[in-house]
Amino acid sequence: MLPDLLLEPLVRNALTEDLGPTGDATVAAVIPPGLRQAVRLNARSSGVASGLRLAAMAFRMVDPALRVVALAEDGDRFEPGTTLMTVEGAAGSILMAERVALNFAGRMTGIATLTAAFVAETRGTRARITCTRKTTPGLRAVEKAAVRHGGGSSHRFGLSDAILIKDNHIAAAGGIRPVLEAARAARSHMMRVEIEVDHLDQLEEVLALGVADVVLLDNMTTATLAEAVAMTAGRVVLEASGNMALPRIAEVAATGVDYISVGALTHSAPVVDLGLDA
Q1: Phi and psi dihedrals of 103, rounded to 5?
Q2: For 97-105, what is the mean pLDDT?
């Protein structure tokens, strides 16, 4: 669970962006100060909840006097018509926070729901679904949390977490051997090394050097992935990546790879339809 310390700045920035320098002009014009309201955050489709803490925080940040009651938790599955949260208090405060709350909840629930669909395709295999760094700037922590709510796992959070050698690093450094030898010299005993390969001959060279902990198998056919698993025989962790669309996941998982990384979990997840109903 992410601490409030990390979540509050995200919610505060979103509210500040929406309210602008002078607040909600519509509420100021048409909502009497003493008017009270009770609303429900309802699901209009099925899914896996995420971002509910962010939504609740948006309401409470606008008005700490609002009574916010969570009826579901992040990670819970729900069906259409499920009430996920109730909010009661000053109508103007509820309306000011509504869009930010729905933006967070709908976006994060979409990520969790899409992740759950990918995870379902790996059942009965060792493969785990993992997200990437293809996240919305500034929202990486909560988007990666949404992936976990959907049953997925997280790749490295940022550039400082691990040494991940991609094709452009290999080209710049002069080849697989020099780049792995440099990584061996630079790594600490706590830092893992992953390298991307496109062909099985590259994988063979990587395995012979014995430096990499993880090999990213990029844009390989399913048959080639199965060959890579057989070649590796458990010596390193294998991650399949590239063109990992949902209809293909079951066959990729069946090859025996350890991880399947899917950028679409965070960059292309559809927003789940949630509504605030009086």
Answers
A1: -60, -50
A2: 98
Q: Which amino acid is at 53?
A: R
Specify whether 56 is located in the same domain as 153. no
Residue 128: strand, helix, or coil: strand
Nearest to 253 by CA among 128, 113, 117, 112: 128
Structure tokens that stand for 227 in this block: 């060959």
Examine the domain organization and report whether 110 and 126 are in the same domain.
Answer: no
- How many domains are there within the chain? 2
Predicted local distance difference test score (pLDDT) of residue 52 = 98
CA distances from 78 to 49, 71, 144, 148 (A): 7, 11, 20, 17
Cβ neighbors of 272 (< 8 A, separation 6 or more) are 43, 45, 47, 106, 109, 110, 113
- Domain containing residue 99: 4-114+270-277
- Other Cβ atoms less than 10 A from the Cβ of 6: the count is 11
Radius of gyration of the chain (CA): 23
Instruction: Tell me: do 100 and 201 sit in the same domain.
Output: no
Predicted TM-score (pTM) of the model is 0.96
DSSP 247: G
| Enzyme catalytic residues | 99, 134, 166, 196, 218
* 27 and 137 share one domain: no
**pLDDT tens by residue, 182-222:** 999 999 999 999 999 999 999 999 999 999 999 999 999 99
Instruction: Count helices and strands (H / E) in the chain.
Output: 11, 13
Tokens of 46: 């099925």
Residues 75, 144 share a domain: no
